[in-house]
Write a structure and sequence with these properties.
Structural class: alpha/beta
Shape: globular
Number of helices: 18
Bound molecules: glutamic acid
Strand order of the largest sheet: 9-8-7-6-10-11-12
Length: 461
């Protein structure tokens, strides 16, 4: 309502998002994911932004939507048969207003500058929400880990670091993992970094092994944090996760942590999925299956059917179907951007789902988010829900900088506290007149205001 009044009385302000979007779409044609991520944030913050003339005067938003810099490089490596291969590598340093550049590395065949720009942009606000001083960045390559041997992964990671090392540093830019890049890949990259830089500071990458500078609980942190956030969201809505049926997409590191914590909190994970189909688990996933997800990830086969083959009496695999076709209370997308479409949202509702916490970055398409919000389904966006991963990376940086190691209990307590604080920020900035919360708006405004204020205070740089 307020927004409409604003748009009627001040058409210039209403046009702001559209003006910026037209400019970006013309300047970067075809960069769809990047446009989608920017549009979502601008639409959320427009009203707040327009009540701060100092932002407009300093062109804060125009500057914020452009990355500080983009590094692009060729990565040449040799496969097991001796054939020479090459890929493109990137590091996008998006925004350093509140701290050094921080964000993961994605290895996936579909990686493009658009994908990494959307991820770097999202990361900037997500990192701002964590309460820790970290700027936003993202990197990666169109290298496809599926079907690659361990030796090929190592040679690729070393070749990737051969270029990347000059762009990063413990006080400058601190990469971590993301899709296709886990503890093993971080290990190979870290080994090569030390060799090249002759620097033995563990703080240059996060997500390291726990015996060589990695934080305890970092592998679990994204999934654990997502469930802590979900618990706060449910508690505010007078609900509890105990006994609820949960559907999870994916079976990588994030889905693994989410399955583990959801099960620990008394929920029943009744489905996981992969690019090949869905694995229904009517009795709920158990510890042995959760452990097996790690084996599946390490195999680089990228097939969820492997779970049903290993546990045939507990699981039923159906090819070509998504996790969203399985009846549940809570949906947790944990795989990839835009994995949940409007028709999936409709199917979820039809099957009784009443809450969706997006764990993957931009996992839900705009139509799906609109459908959830217009149909009374609780929804929270990835940049708030999954921020526990990078927050624990921030805790790893603190441990590295001070040369100490916290126990699992200490890290878990801090992660809890951070997720609670992120939830509070979303409520503060997203509360509606009727007392319900628009978590998309809340997360976007909270993150945006922090970065915008810092940029303003640091002048025109
Ligand atoms: N890739 C993760 C994310 O999307 C973690 C980044 C990090 O730990 O730096 O937030």
């Amino acid at each position: 309502m307020l927004f409409l009044q604003h748009s009627v009385f001040n058409p210039y302000c209403y046009m702001k998002t559209e003006e910026i979007m037209s400019y970006l779409e013309a300047k970067y044609p075809g960069e769809k994911e990047y446009h989608q991520a920017v549009r979502e944030v601008l639409e959320s913050v427009e009203e707040t932004y327009n009540s701060h003339p100092e932002f407009e005067k300093n062109k804060i938003v125009e500057r914020m939507v452009e990355p500080d810099r983009i590094f692009t490089f060729r990565v040449t490596w040799v496969d097991d048969s001796g054939e020479v291969r090459h890929n493109t590598g990137y590091r996008i340093q998006f925004n350093s207003a509140i701290g050094p550049y921080k964000g993961g590395i994605r290895f996936h065949k579909a990686v493009t500058p658009s994908m990494l720009k959307f991820l770097g942009f999202e990361q900037t606000f997500k990192n701002a929400l964590t309460t820790l001083p970290m700027g936003g960045a993202k990197g990666g390559s169109d290298f496809d880990p599926v079907g690659k041997s361990d030796a090929e992964i190592m040679r690729f990671c070393q070749a990737f670091m051969l270029e990347l090392w000059q762009c990063i540093g413990p006080d400058q830019d601190i990469p971590a993992g993301d899709v296709g890049c886990g503890g093993r890949e971080i290990g190979y990259m870290y080994g090569m970094y030390k060799k090249l830089a002759r620097e033995y500071n563990t703080g240059v990458l996060t997500g390291k092994g726990s015996t060589w500078g990695g934080s305890i609980l970092r592998p679990e942190a994204t999934g654990f944090g997502a469930l802590y956030f979900t618990s706060h969201l449910l508690a505010r809505a007078g609900q509890d996760i105990k006994g609820r049926k949960v559907c999870i997409s994916g079976f990588g590191n994030v889905a693994w942590g989410a399955c583990k914590k959801a099960t620990e909190l008394g929920a029943k994970v009744v489905a996981i999925s992969g690019p090949d189909g869905v694995c229904e688990i009517p009795g709920g996933i158990n510890g042995e299956m959760i452990d097996y997800m790690l084996v599946m990830r390490a195999s680089n086969r990228n097939k969820v059917q492997d779970m049903a083959d290993k546990f045939p009496s507990e699981c039923k695999f159906t090819a070509g179907r998504k996790a969203w076709s399985v009846p549940c209370d809570i949906a947790l997308p944990c795989a990839f951007q835009n994995e949940l479409a409007e028709e999936d949202a409709r199917e979820l509702k039809k099957n009784g789902c009443w809450c969706c916490c997006e764990v993957s970055n931009m996992g839900c398409q705009p139509g799906a988010i609109r459908f959830f919000q217009n149909n009374g389904i609780l929804f929270a966006p990835g940049k708030a829900v999954n921020a526990g991963g990078v927050a624990t990376s921030g805790l790893e940086m603190t441990q590295n900088a001070t040369h100490i190691s916290w126990s699992a209990r200490e890290v878990d307590e801090k992660l809890h506290f951070i997720m609670e604080s992120i939830h509070e920020q979303c409520v503060k900035f997203g509360i509606r007149k009727d007392g319900s919360v628009d978590y998309v708006k809340g997360a976007n405004i909270a993150g945006f205001m922090k970065v915008a204020q810092a940029m303003l205070e640091q002048g025109l740089v």
